[in-house]
Design goal:
Blueprint lengths: L4 H13 L5 E5 L43 E5 L10 H7 L4 E6 L2 H14 L3 E9 L8
Parallel strand pairs: 1-2, 3-4
Length: about 140
């Protein structure tokens, strides 16, 4: 995170100055291990028990925290678009291009990029604003 924070801070400053819509995502679950689990099969791929709603693990880093009026989407899978209202929100804002950053290139950023294309947006992934690919999966 420390490596990508400065780039994300600079992008946020520029976007806010130009009044470009800023959207945050986080992944969290209400009941990751119980009988009413909201993880789908995701709990078989990542340790979702750490991503409880309201937990520090699911929180957005304070150094790049959302400001008042900026949307925060709670997602349940890798993509910011899948199962969320992101595409509709961006279309209502007349957005045609999305600039993506994030912690996990091989997961959330990649899937969000693919779904951005499928939803009719032009994605730009900021290399310096994206964490390194994960090297192992449990």
């Amino acid at each position: 995170m420390d490596v990508i924070i400065p780039t994300n801070q600079a992008l946020l400053k520029a976007a806010r100055a130009k009044r470009i819509p800023v959207v945050y995502t986080t992944t969290s679950y209400q009941d990751p291990k119980g009988p009413q689990s909201d993880t789908g099969l995701w709990n078989l791929k990542i340790p979702v028990e750490n991503l409880l709603e309201g937990s520090d693990e699911a929180a957005i880093d304070d150094r790049i925290a959302p400001q008042e009026g900026e949307m925060v989407i709670v997602k349940k899978s890798a993509s910011a678009f899948y199962g969320t209202n992101l595409a509709g929100y961006l279309q209502a804002q007349r957005v045609d291009t999305v600039i993506l950053t994030g912690v996990t290139m091989a997961g959330c950023v990649r899937h969000s990029t693919e779904d951005a294309i499928a939803s009719g947006f032009r994605p730009i992934v900021v290399r310096e604003g994206v964490g390194k690919p994960i090297t192992s999966i449990r």
